[in-house]
């Protein structure tokens, strides 16, 4: 189960007990915000893409949308989302629970600038009814990410 992979990932910092397992679904930004009682923009959604058959994730604020021009300028190609039926195999988590923790080793992760306006954010934890509240410093520390990028719009 993917949430167990996330628990194992967080165990190296002894924070696995901070994962919140919710009674209701947190599979979308709106559902997660409602279940957690926070603003939708503070949900750290994880978007999955394929570039030259390589899988990458972009963690962005809940109100941010991919800006195709910025994405192409940053990565050199047009944004192409991972097909729904390939998400679990490529990433290690299924749709609704995709997060930057406990993912397959060949997945590259980026954090989007849209998150930097918040003190804390709520990424998923591998299931469609889980989340963890993290400061940006914690998000950086616990996420094996490449770098911060600016590939989103609609949040400014």
What does this structure look like?
With 156 residues, this protein is of the alpha/beta class. The chain has 5 helices and 10 strands, in the order αβαβββααββββαββ. It has helices spanning 2-11, 29-36, 68-75, 87-91, 136-142; strands at 20-21, 43-51, 54-61, 65-66, 108-112, 120-123, 130-131, 134-135, 147-149, 152-153. It has a 6-stranded mixed β-sheet with strand order 8-6-2-3-5-9. Strand 2 (43-51) and strand 3 form a beta hairpin. The chain is globular, with a radius of gyration of 14 Å. The mean pLDDT is 96.
Question: What's a concise summary of this model?
Answer:
With 156 residues, this protein is of the alpha/beta class. The chain has helices at residues 2-11, 29-36, 68-75, 87-91, 136-142; strands at residues 20-21, 43-51, 54-61, 65-66, 108-112, 120-123, 130-131, 134-135, 147-149, 152-153. The chain has a 6-stranded mixed sheet with strand order 8-6-2-3-5-9.
Per CATH, the architecture is Alpha-Beta Complex
The CATH class name reads Alpha Beta
Number of domains: 1
CATH fold name:
YbaK protein
Tags for this entry?
156 residues; alpha/beta; YbaK protein; 6-stranded mixed sheet; 24% helix
Task: Outline the secondary-structure elements.
Layout: H1 2-11, E1 20-21, H2 29-36, E2 43-51, E3 54-61, E4 65-66, H3 68-75, H4 87-91, E5 108-112, E6 120-123, E7 130-131, E8 134-135, H5 136-142, E9 147-149, E10 152-153
Parallel strand pairs: 2-6, 3-5, 5-9
Antiparallel strand pairs: 1-7, 2-3, 4-10, 6-8
């Amino acid at each position: 189960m993917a949430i167990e992979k996330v628990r194992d990932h967080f165990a190296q910092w002894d924070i696995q007990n901070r994962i919140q397992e919710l009674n209701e679904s947190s599979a979308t930004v709106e559902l997660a915000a409602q279940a957690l009682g926070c603003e939708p923009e503070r949900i750290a959604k994880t978007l999955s893409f394929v570039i030259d058959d390589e899988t990458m994730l972009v963690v962005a604020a809940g109100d941010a949308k991919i800006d195709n021009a910025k994405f192409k300028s940053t990565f050199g190609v047009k944004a192409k989302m991972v097909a729904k039926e390939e998400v679990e195999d490529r990433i290690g988590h299924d749709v609704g629970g995709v997060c930057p923790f406990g993912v397959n080793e060949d997945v590259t992760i980026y954090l989007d600038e849209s998150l930097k306006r918040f003190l804390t954010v709520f990424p998923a934890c591998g299931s469609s009814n889980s989340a963890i509240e993290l400061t940006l410093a914690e998000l950086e520390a616990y996420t094996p990410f490449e770098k911060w990028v600016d590939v989103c719009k609609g949040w400014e």
